[in-house]
Amino acid sequence: xxxxxxxxxxxxxxxxxxxxxxxxxxxxxxxxxxxxxxxxxxxxxxxxxxxxxxxxxxxxxxxxxxxxxxxxxxxxxxxxxxxxxxxxxxxxxxxxxxxxxxxxxxxxxxxxxxxxxxxxxxxxxxxxxxxxxxxxxxxxxxxxxxxxxxxxxxxxxxxxxxxxxxxxxxxxxxxxxxxxxxxxxxxxxxxxxxxxxxxxxxxxxxxxxxxxxxxxxxxxxxxxxxxxxxxxxxxxxxxxxxxxxxxxxxxxxxxxxxxxxxxxxxxxxxxxxxxxxxxxxxxxxxxxxxxxxxxxxxxxxxxxxxxxxxxxxxxxxxxxxxxxxxxxxxxxxxxxxxxxxxxxxxxxxxxxxxxxxxxxxxxxxxxxxxxxxxxxxxxxxxxxxxxxxxxxxxxxxxxxxxxxxxxxxxxxxxxxxxxxxxxxxxxxxxxxxxxxxxxxxxxxxxxxxxxxxxxxxxxxxxxxxxxxxxxxxxxxxxxxxxxxxxxxxxxxxxxxxxxxxxxxxxxxxxxxxxxxxxxxxxxxxxxxxxxxxxxxxxxxxxxxxxxxxxxxxxxxxxxxxxxxxxxxxxxxxxxxxxxxxxxxxxxxxxxxxxxxxxxxxxxxxxxxxxxxxxxxxxxxxxxxxxxxxxxxxxxxxxxxxxxxxxxx
Length: 648
Prior knowledge:
Elements: E1 2-7, E2 11-15, H1 21-28, E3 46-51, E4 54-56, H2 64-68, E5 71-73, E6 77-79, E7 83-86, H3 115-120, E8 128-134, H4 146-158, E9 163-165, H5 167-179, E10 183-189, E11 198-205, E12 213-219, E13 223-230, E14 236-243, H6 253-260, H7 265-288, E15 295-302, H8 304-310, E16 333-334, E17 347-350, H9 360-369, E18 378-382, E19 386-392, E20 397-403, E21 423-429, E22 436-440, E23 448-449, H10 451-463, E24 482-485, E25 488-494, E26 505-508, H11 509-532, E27 542-546, H12 555-561, E28 572-576, H13 578-588, H14 590-602, E29 603-606, H15 612-620, H16 633-643
Parallel strand pairs: 1-7, 9-11, 12-15, 15-17, 18-27, 20-29, 21-23, 27-28
Antiparallel strand pairs: 1-2, 3-5, 3-7, 4-6, 8-10, 10-11, 12-13, 13-14, 16-17, 18-19, 19-20, 21-22, 24-25, 25-26
Helix pairs in contact: 6-7, 9-13, 10-12, 11-15, 13-14
């Protein structure tokens, strides 16, 4: 056995001889960037061996200077001695930015659900309610069983019929109702349909009706967010987000599925995501200072792969043609049965999915945005590693998913990173000197480039003529920023002495090519789905951009590179985390739970890989902004004016 100490975390772990270093980090709870899931091809898992030795760890991703300084790739390193390992700043995962209070580029225009409006319409029926019981005490003349007394009161006072009671309640009720002189609170789970059974799931002494809470959670591939909701007022009492611990096993769903197929892999990924969920739940409960026993329900929304891993359902067939998920609908589940640290009466409600790649997170977004109730034809886009698109209105809905790749989240980019402190998020260039201005998250020295920053950099360079429509640098420009290293052209965004990582931060032509492929997948997916339903972009009344990344995309820059069609910005609404919005709303009204099954069934899914026109659209999109510049008339006018010297 060998002792491994990870700095600067000061976490120590004992491992067997021959253990992989990145796996040791996972077991120690030290997260290291590993975009490729440990395959050794991304080069992101750089660590510094300060003491001890490893076998391997050297690849073409490390130059001689790196190696001399003790850098190794963790996923390629085998532990052969006691060690001290330092995780450098560029390899760390910083969750702090996830909870920063900031304003997106265009505030959401969709109104939050109005609780008073729900009450007026008789729709404020949360999945779980509390009812105060003032029971008569038993006598020799009235010695009905305790449960009969409780059920009778609920029927008479609250008009609750078709009741069933859980065994756990029967076990505790006799003592509980006597604790406060036959004054108690029943926690009841309301049925989705009027003819369903109302279940009594818990009972508490005294009157606790003012303390009824629930948790909404978005289980993302990269991040997990939770909110604690007051079911009496509809207010969010606390919220918190953190990275999904599964990212150490691969940054995309395909990597996770591959890992899940390994012996013990499914169990491991299930346990890791549950640990992440429990960490967030513990945080938001402490923030709001509520009693765990007063939490009555939890809703969970995630993509199909994340949902199946959460429920410990083998996801292997999701990535194999004909791409079949295990199920579309999930029954209510006891939260404790999944390993979630909540009281044993709490039910977990899981959003249904449509297909292998259009999951519960997108269904939740459709529900939360209200597009399924609107007359307007709406285009809903969730931009990320997997780009999901929904088009339709209250009468019909069509959806599709395309793999955009990890570029929008920093994957496949030499100095790409997630949107955390030190990431370049905005950018401009002096048109005369060609010197850059880098704006980073947190206003600190840069350590990499996040997705929105990548879009801004490439769009600016293209419009200024620094790169052409193939993403190639103009080598004739008079600047030392453009250079060739090992046969690859690159632009120096920040020289080493101005960074936090002691290396030049550059943007390379392969980086630009990766972005072009990612934006091409998104754009062609959108255009293909429009064609399949017989519409064009001009038929769309409004566009909703969802997802944390989507909320910070500069619309103009996104159109310049051809990520989005050239559209009227006033038609666009950013809603942020649509998945979390839908999860929250379903806790406030059973109307959503009743509608969601119908909506999920109504969403017609198109498998783009099986759609002939998708590849044609994709190939045409592999230019900046597109092979057909006439699709972007405003940009074409600006580019022509620049060529004529009439403007910038």
